[in-house]
Structure formats: C-alpha cells, structure tokens
Amino acid sequence: MAAPERLNVLLSQARNVLILVGNSETFVSSRKGRKYWRPFINQMKSEGHLYNRLPVQCEQHPQTNTILRTAEDFDRECPDRGCPAPYGMKLSCGVYECPSKCHQLADHSNMKCIKIAKRSCRFYIQEDEVKEHIIGLETVKAKFLSIKWKVDAAIRQNIDLSHDRYGSVLLRNPGSGKTTIARLYTKFLSSIGIIPSDTFIEMTGSRLTNNGISGCQKTIETLLKSSGGAIFIDKAYQLLSSSLSGSQVLDFLLAEVKNLIRKVVFILTGYQRPIEKFFAHNPGLPSRFPHKL
C-alpha cells in the first residue's frame, strides 16, 4: 500500500465512498507511504470527509442523516431498513397512514390496514338499531358479537380462519323466530366475510329425505351458483325418522359441511330432545355444528 499506484487505483475506482479498514495513522506514519497518504488524509480531514463511522442518509427522508459505528447503531437507527421516523405514507385503504417506522417501499406494499374504523355507515347503523330492538334475542346477539370479536382478533393477528366452522343449531319453540334468526345469522356471516353471499335456502328434513342425495346435491349446486350462502334445515331430525335414505342424505351432508367451509353454512333447527337423539347418530355432528343460537 506504500506505492502511489495503490492510492491512485483506490481513488479512481471509488464512485461514492471509499472505505478503509484499519488505522489511518498506520498509513500516515508509514516510512515509505506517508509521502502520498499524509496529504490525502489531511485533505479529507480538512474538508470534513473523514469519518471513523459510517454516514448514512434515509432515501425516504433525505433530511435524516446519522452516523453508524456499531451493530447496535444499525438496530437503533435503521430498525426496518429505514430511519426511525414514521413512514408517513397511506396504507392500501387510502385513509390511514402506515403506523410502522420508515421501511422500504416493497415492504410497504404488502402491509394491510388493520385500523378499526371509528365511523360506521349510516345504513348499517340503522340495520343494527333494528336488530337491537328485536325482543328476546339477547343470547343470539351475544353469540353474534362473540363470533365477530373472534374474527376481528384473528384478522388483526393474521390468523388463518379457513378451517373454522360456523355451522349452527337453533333449539327453539314454535313461533320463536327460528327462520328470522337464521336469516340474520346468514347476513351476519356474509357481512364479516365468512361466507361470500347471504343467499338463503330453506328446507326441511323430510323434504331432503324425499329428494334423496341427488336432490340434496342439486340444492347445493344452486346455492353455489350464487357464490354460496346458507342452507336452513328445519326439523333436521326428520332425516332419521323415516327411512334409510334420510340417513344416507345426512352422511352426504356431513361430508359437504366439511368440504364447503367458507362457501356454505348449514343451519339446523328443531326441538331439544329430538335434536339430542339426532346428534347421537354421528359423533362428528357436534364438531360440524359447533354454534348454538
């Protein structure tokens, strides 16, 4: 390094910065090399371009400059490959700013907005007020809220919901609004993105038994043409009360409940005691219909 050609090559090859690993005093004090290195080092010092650390500038915030010396400096001053300042750009929603510190644009494009909106659509407010005034459905509304809180928490934490089941059972007396509750439940699941549509098909256990597996399959295909939705089966225990075909239809439905998660939700209804016998038919029924309304 004492030869002048070495210094000339370094200067000619460097475009933006010249990094020297070692002690500059070694070059300046060298018996052979100080003739060339001392003027160079002194000029760098006099013009303020000689650092014992690494000067950096944020590309997103050019006014932010700092000097890094240790590995800890990188973690503190460049936490997300940018400066410690807020990123300051809008998220994909176009409303809220990115809450993270400065980072690369490629990372920002993959960030999702998880901000909970403080203002609600006035049409949804009116719909919620109507639901709140429905008398005698406090337990149902509490169930709706518990499902919504779980879904909201999963979205914020990036938890996969593709295997969660939302099949439900309604155990209510005649005239207690079972169909109304089922329709509200379908609209609710559609509004929070669990199913793609609030299309609602109403059936009975005896009708499904008479139609057989082929008729049941046609009903599901009709629903899927509307992107999905819910199938409401009133008096579901009738599937087991008449003939062998009802049991076969039930076994077919159990397979479809598993295969059509996030597309179709099945809602069963009936009286307490017959439904308990109905659930005893197959140990897989409680796991496929985990919610009671």
From TrEMBL:
**GO MF annotation: an example:** ATP binding
- Record's superkingdom? Eukaryota
Positions the record marks as coiled coil are none
Q: Keyword check for Manganese, yes or no.
A: no
State the Gene3D superfamilies in the record: P-loop containing nucleotide triphosphate hydrolases
- One Pfam annotation reads AAA
Domain (ATPase AAA-type core): residue spans on this chain: 173-275
Which keywords fit this entry according to its UniProt record? ATP-binding, Nucleotide-binding
Question: Iron among the record's keywords?
Answer: no
Q: Which InterPro entries does the record cross-reference, listed alphabetically?
A: ATPase_AAA_core, CbxX/CfxQ, CbxX/CfxQ_RuBisCO_ESX, P-loop_NTPase
Q: Which family does it belong to?
A: Belongs to the CbxX/CfxQ family.
Q: What PANTHER family does UniProt report for this protein, alphabetically?
A: AAA-TYPE ATPASE FAMILY PROTEIN / ANKYRIN REPEAT FAMILY PROTEIN, AAA-TYPE ATPASE FAMILY PROTEIN _ ANKYRIN REPEAT FAMILY PROTEIN
Protein name, as recorded: CbxX/CfqX
